[in-house]
Write a structure and sequence with these properties.
Length: 364
C-alpha cells in the first residue's frame, strides 16, 4: 500500500448483485466513463452545497463528453437525508426524462452518498450509480457496501435499500479541503475497523495520533485502504446483513440513538465514538472484554480528539431511541460487543442494570 499508486479493492457480488471495485488514489475521475458504461445518455451528479464547484465542474466535464448532465445540489450533511430532499431529487430526475439506462453519480460525504444511492435505488425501481466519496468516513465506510437510505423523525436510516454502486472512486486529494472536525469524525469508523477486524489500524494511529488527524499524515492512504478492505470483505459475504455484517454496527446502537437525540446535528463519527466507548464498557461488564482492550478504546479515541462522553440524564431517551435500532428483534435489544481484540460478537438482551452501569462510564 502506498500514497502514490492507485489501489483497487474488490467487492464481490452477492445476493444477485454485480461485483465492483473501490479505487483509492488521486485523479481518478478518468475512471468515470468506464463505470458509466456505454448505455447512458443522461447523468445526474448529486452533490452537497459545500461541493458546489466540484459538482458543477464534474457536470460540465460530463457534458463535454456528450452526456446530458444535470447537477442536483442538496443540503450539506444530514439535512440531505430526508424524504423531502429525496423527493426533490426524484423531481429533478423526472424533469430530465431520466431512464433506466441513465446513471446517478453521488459526490460528497456519507450523507450525500447515502442519499444519492437511495435516489438511485428508488428511481424506476433502481438505476446504476457511482459513488465519489469526498470524506474519510464516506471513503472507508458509507460509499462501500450498498447500504443507502435516509433518516426519519423516528430514527436514523430507517428508510433505505441495499443497492450497491457500480464503482467507488476515492480521490485522496478531496480530503485536503475537509474541515478537521469532519476529518476526525471519519476516524471513528477507521478505529471501528481496527477494533472489529484489523488491529494494525490501531497501531498505526497510536504511533502518531496527531498526524492521523490530517490527510498529510504518513499513514493516511494505508489507514483508508485497510479500513475499506475490512468493509469490503464483510459486505462481500453478507450484503443484506443476515449475520456477519452486523459487526460493522459496532458502536452504532448507542451512536444512532445519540444522533437522533441531537436531531442529527452531531456528526455520525462523533456519536459512534461515544457508542464504541459504551460498547467497550458493556463488553467489559458482560465479562467478555479484557480491561486492556476496553481501556484502549478510551485512549485511541481520545488521542485523535473524538468524544467519549454524552449527557447522563439522557439515558431514558437513549434507551427509547435504541428500540428502533435495526438489530433489535421485537423487544430484544442487541449490541455488537467484543470478546477480545478483533473478535466481535452479538450480545442479546443484556440486563438493563448492566446497560445502565456501562452508561455510567459514558454519561456525564
Ligand atoms: N451507508 C453506509 O454504510 C454508511 C456507513 C457509515 C456512515 N454512513 C452515513 O454517512 C453519514 C456521515 O458521513 P460524513 O461523515 O462523510 O458526513 P457528511 O456527509 O455529513 O459530510 C460532512 C460535511 O462535509 C462536507 N464535505 C464533504 N466533503 C467535503 C470536502 N471534500 N471538503 C469540504 N467539505 C466537504 C459535507 O457537505 C458536510 O457538510 C451519516 O449519515 C452516516 O449515517 C453510512
Ligand atoms: O455497512 C454497515 O452495515 C454498517 O453498519 C456501517 C455503519 O458504519 C453505517 O453507519 C451504517 O449506515 C449503519 O447502518 P444501519 O443499518 O444501522 O442504519
Ligand atoms: Zn457508521
Amino acid at each position: 500500500m502506498s500514497n502514490e499508486a492507485v489501489t483497487r479493492i474488490h467487492v464481490a457480488g452477492t445476493a444477485g448483485t454485480e461485483p465492483y471495485d473501490v479505487l483509492v488514489g488521486r485523479q481518478l475521475l478518468g475512471e468515470l466513463p468506464g463505470l458509466i458504461g456505454d448505455k447512458a445518455q443522461r447523468i445526474a451528479v448529486i452533490h452537497p452545497e459545500a461541493l458546489a464547484e466540484t459538482g458543477e465542474a464534474l457536470r460540465a466535464d460530463l457534458a463535454g463528453q456528450g452526456y446530458e448532465a444535470v447537477a442536483i445540489q442538496v443540503p450539506n450533511a444530514e439535512e440531505a437525508k430526508t424524504a423531502e430532499v429525496a423527493a426533490y431529487c426524484w423531481k429533478a430526475l423526472g424533469q430530465s426524462n431520466f431512464t433506466r439506462t441513465d446513471v446517478v453519480v453521488g459526490v460528497g460525504g456519507g450523507a450525500t452518498t447515502d442519499l444519492a444511492g437511495f435516489v438511485a435505488a428508488t428511481w424506476l425501481r433502481g438505476v446504476r450509480w457511482i459513488a465519489v466519496p469526498t470524506t474519510v468516513l464516506a471513503m472507508v465506510d458509507a460509499a462501500v457496501g450498498g447500504k443507502t437510505g435516509i433518516n426519519t423523525a423516528e430514527g436514523k436510516n430507517l428508510v433505505g435499500a441495499f443497492h450497491p454502486p457500480a464503482g467507488v472512486l476515492c480521490d485522496l486529494a478531496a480530503l485536503d479541503s475537509l474541515p478537521v472536525h469532519d476529518y476526525v469524525s471519519g476516524l471513528a469508523e477507521v478505529i471501528k475497523a481496527g477494533f472489529i477486524a484489523d488491529p494494525v489500524i490501531l497501531d498505526l494511529i497510536e504511533s502518531d495520533p496527531e498526524a492521523a488527524r490530517t490527510p498529510a499524515g504518513p499513514h493516511t492512504a494505508e489507514l483508508i485502504e485497510r479500513s475499506i478492505k475490512v468493509k469490503a470483505d464483510v459486505v462481500s459475504s453478507d450484503l443484506k446483513e443476515s449475520g456477519l455484517r452486523e459487526i460493522l454496527n459496532y458502536g452504532h446502537t448507542l451512536g444512532h440513538a445519540i444522533e437522533k437525540n441531537e436531531r442529527y446535528k452531531w456528526r455520525h463519527g462523533a456519536a459512534v465514538a461515544v457508542g464504541m466507548h459504551f460498547a467497550a464498557e458493556l463488553g467489559r461488564l458482560a465479562g467478555r472484554l479484557d480491561d486492556a482492550t476496553a481501556d484502549r478504546h478510551r485512549t485511541v479515541l481520545q488521542a485523535v480528539g473524538l468524544p467519549l462522553h454524552y449527557r447522563y440524564d439522557q439515558w431514558p431517551k437513549l434507551v427509547e431511541n435504541m428500540k428502533v435500532d435495526k438489530k433489535s428483534r421485537g423487544n430484544l435489544l442487541r449490541f455488537v460487543v467484543l470478546d477480545g481484540l478483533a473478535r466481535p460478537t452479538v450480545l442479546e438482551g443484556p440486563d438493563p442494570a448492566v446497560l445502565l452501569a456501562a452508561y455510567g462510564e459514558v454519561g456525564q
